[in-house]
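Service request form, structural biology core

Requester: graduate student, group of Dr. S.
Request type: structure prediction, single chain
Budget code: on file
Notes: please return the result as structure tokens.

Sequence provided:
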Amino acid sequence: MSEPNNNDPIGDAPDADPELVRGGQERRRSSAVWVAAVLVSLIVVVVLVLVLI
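Core staff response, request fulfilled:
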């Protein structure tokens, strides 16, 4: 437990969720994965539209 005067602004709150406090490289990797997923999705949609027309 935290001491009352230990300069901890959060007090006894649990540690932050690791998903919310990612490092720079992890954040870039996650962003790259999202961009790749969106691009693949768009390509699949375009191919399906062209095949069905």
